Amino acid sequence: MEYIKAFIVGGAICVIGQIIINKTQLTPAHVLVLFVTTGVILGALGVYEPIVKFGGAGATVPIPGFGYALAKGTISAVKEDGLLGAFTGGISATAGGITAAIVFGYLMAVFFNPKTKP
């Protein structure tokens, strides 16, 4: 049942993104920024937490989940470290994901010889 919930939530996020791309003049890059910002705002307001509890990876793996992790890490760090946590919390909370993206992106570039599009 967890897989079905994750599929529903993750699929809904993707459908929303596709509708935004199809119905507006926004580029995928704009939608990316919109989704991260939305994840931060919903995470800070506590609205995204129930979505994460219901959808699990379906809510944390898509890009709004990154914004949610930034907000959650920042809030946690501010409670522990005060104002300094506002600058360090988001990065420390997402450092593992950022590191994995860089390492795996580099490995794919080494193994598969990427080419630019003409």
TrEMBL record:
List the Pfam families.
SpoVAC_SpoVAEB
- Membrane-traversing stretches: 6-22, 29-48, 54-71, 83-112
Q: Which UniProt keywords apply?
A: Membrane, Transmembrane, Transmembrane helix
UniProt-recorded name of the protein: Sporulation stage V protein AE
Native organism:
Alkaliphilus oremlandii (strain OhILAs)
Q: What high-level taxonomic lineage is stated for the organism? A: Bacteria, Bacillati, Bacillota, Clostridia, Peptostreptococcales
